[in-house]
Amino acid sequence: MTLVRSLSLLRSKNFQTRLQRFYGNVKLRNIGILAHIDAGKTTTTERMLFYAGKTRTMGEVHRGNTVTDYLTQERERGITICSSAVAFNWRDHKINLLDTPGHIDFTMEVEQSLHAVDGVVVVLDGTAGVEAQTITVWSQAEKHRLPKLVFVNKMDRPDADFAACVSDLLQKLNTKPICLQIPVKDSDGNLTILDVISQQAIIWNNASLGREYKILPPLEAHLKDLQEKRYILIDELSGIDDELAQVVINSEGFEQVSNELIQQALRRAVAQRKVVPVLLGSAYKNVGVQRVMDAVIDYLPAPNERNQLYDCFGFCGKSF
């Protein structure tokens, strides 16, 4: 029995070595996308596929033509029943994504899928915040020790409340949210995203279905708030990450801390599950999704990185 187990472990390690050589270790992300029902999870997935060039047109849940909801029952009811796997390339990385059900009746589908991923994107409805099934899938991800990102969706709606969603994350999920963006709406309700780290405004082009966007200096009215949010971000991260704390101590002020150093510290903190980056947008209105894709690469771990950090599993041949 001991000999059989030893041979099995040896084969597992050899398989992992071959995988690492094939994928170059860090150019791969295996992620799940989780949410309460109707938070916009499948719509977000459709946008990711479209912007990555995987599909020529955007599928819509209400039209019954999405890639990941392919069963007749899914298209008739407009909900995800079975987890679906899709893959696409983004910024010279390969992303394997599992779109999971948000309905309470299919919780085991989520559980099976989480065995196969190294991080998750949790989608919140910006008008509802943390809901019942959000708490369930979050607990499942916690059990599997998975690093997380949060995407606050539907921020184009008049009753969306970003601050309330962040408060929900803190109070209902007992986590440490790190806001990377600030929402701003004009008089017509158009959504602009202010990036806290780069201190820039991002405006999406509706005519191009969100494929194009402009990065501009923020309006003077937003400068003070944006700068304060960056200082808060650095302060919170330096209390967690020793390397960033040392840079802050040696520098004359937060202004001297580069964007690259902030991102590196944030990546380390996310991998250790000490913080959860929070982004925002509107998948249906084609705003903000590319930044979520960027965050998956920038902050969620590659398979070998997570395995080194937690030593949580060897080769997993589990079907999901």
UniProtKB/TrEMBL annotation:
Which PROSITE patterns does the entry mention? G_TR_1, G_TR_2
GO terms in the biological process aspect are:
mitochondrial translation; ribosome disassembly
Q: Which Pfam families match?
A: GTP_EFTU
Q: Where is the Tr-type G domain?
A: 26-304
As one GO molecular function, the record gives: GTPase activity
User: Carries keyword Mitochondrion?
Assistant: yes
Transmembrane regions listed in the UniProt entry? none
Keyword set for this entry? GTP-binding, Mitochondrion, Nucleotide-binding, Protein biosynthesis
Asked if the keyword rRNA-binding belongs to this entry, the reply reads: no
Gene Ontology, cellular component aspect: mitochondrial matrix
Highest taxon, organism lineage: Eukaryota
UniProt-listed InterPro entries: G_TR_CS, P-loop_NTPase, Small_GTP-bd, T_Tr_GTP-bd_dom
Instruction: State the name under which the record lists this protein.
Output: Ribosome-releasing factor 2, mitochondrial
User: Which species does this protein come from?
Assistant: Ceratitis capitata
